[in-house]
Amino acid sequence: METIRNYLETMFAKLPITFEVQKAKDELWQMMEDKYTELMNDGKTENEAVGIVISEFGNLDELSEELGIRDFVIQENRNTGSAFRNMTLVEVKDYLHDKTRSAYTIALGVFLCITSCCGYMMDISWNWRGGIYATCFMFLMIATAVGLFMYSSFVMGKWKFLKQKQCSVDFATAEYVHNRRESFRVTHAMMITIGVILCILSVLPIMIVGSLFSWSSGFGVVLMFVFIGIGVFLFVAAGNVSAGMTTILSLNKSGTMGGCFVPSQKQVSYKNEKISEMMSLYWPTVTCIYLCWSFLSFDWHITWIVWVIAALVQKFIQAVY
Fold first, then answer.
1. 223, 209 contact by CB (below 8 A)
2. List of residues 6+ apart from 148 with CB closer than 8 A
3. In terms of pTM, does the model score above 0.70?
4. Which residues contact 312 (CB under 8 A, 6 or more apart)?
5. Contact 80, 60 (CB under 8 A)
6. How far, in Å, CA of 235 to CA of 291, rounded?
7. What single string gives the DSSP state of each residue in 122-160?
8. Burial of 219 by CB count in 10 Å (0-12 exposed, 13-18 middle, 19+ buried)?
9. Which of 309, 300, 106 shows the shortest CA–CA distance to 203?
10. If you ran DSSP here, which 8-state letter would residue 216 be given?
11. Residues of the chain above pLDDT 70, percent
12. Phi-psi group of 170: left, alpha or beta (phi > 0 → left; psi -120 to 50 → alpha; rest → beta)
C-alpha cells in the first residue's frame, strides 16, 4: 500500500491546494484502497495488486473529469513546459552528497582565511626574519582557501539546472530528504553550540598564555584565531549542509499539493538562491561578530547594538527578497 500511496502523492504533487483537489485525492485514494483489498482477497500477490491498481487508476488525465478536477489538470499541463524536470531519488542523493562535500570544503577555506594572519602573530613572539615567513604563510593559506572555493564551485557546477529549470521531487524523495534533515537536526544544533562556545572561549588563550608566558603573547592571539576559525568552520559547514536539504524541499511550489509533503517547508523562503544560502548563516555570523568585537574591545555596553542592527538588516532583506 505504501507504493500506491507514494504514487498517488506524486500524481497530485503539482496541483494547487484547493478543497476540490483534496476531495478528489481522498476519493481516488479510497478507490485505490478498495481495489487493492479486493485483489488481495482474490488471491493476487502484493506486486500484482499494486500493478493492477496503478494501471487502472494511475492516469489522472483520464480520471480528472470523473473526479471533478479537469480544469486544474488542464491548467497544470499548460503550465508544465519543456523546462520542467522531476528529480529522481538517485539524483537527490548525489546532490546532497556533493553539497555536503562542498559545505565542508568551503568551511575549510573560511577557516584558512581566518587563520591566515596567524603568521604575523607568531612573528611578534619569535621574530621571523622581518615578517618574510609570516607573509609567505599568509599567502599560502589564502591561495589554498581560494583553491578550495574554486573546487567547491566546480563540484556544484553540474547542479546549476536547479536554478535554471523548474524542478520538483516526488513524495517518496521529499520524505527521504525530510527524514534526513530531521536526523541532521541534532548534529546541526551540536555544531552551532560548539561553535558558539569556541567563539566565547577564544579570549581565554590570550589571558592564560599572556599571564603565564609574557614572551608568547602572540601565541595566545594565534590560539584565539584558531578557536574562532574552528567555530566559524562549524557554523559554515552546518549551515550549508542544512541549506542543501532545504533547497531540495523547496523545489515543489509552496501553493501545490507537493509543497506540503513535509512540515519543514513552512518557513521563510527567498527568491534568490544565493540570498537563501547566505541567510542560513546569518545569525551564526552575527553571533561570531558580536563575540569577537566584545572580547577584543571589552565594550560590552556598546556591542549589544549589533543585535538591533542585525535584526533591522534581516527584516530589510526579507522585505526585498
1. yes
2. 105, 106, 108, 109, 112
3. no
4. none
5. no
6. 14
7. HHHHH--GGGHHHHHHHHHHHHHHHHHHHHHHHHHGGGT
8. buried
9. 300
10. G
11. 71
12. beta
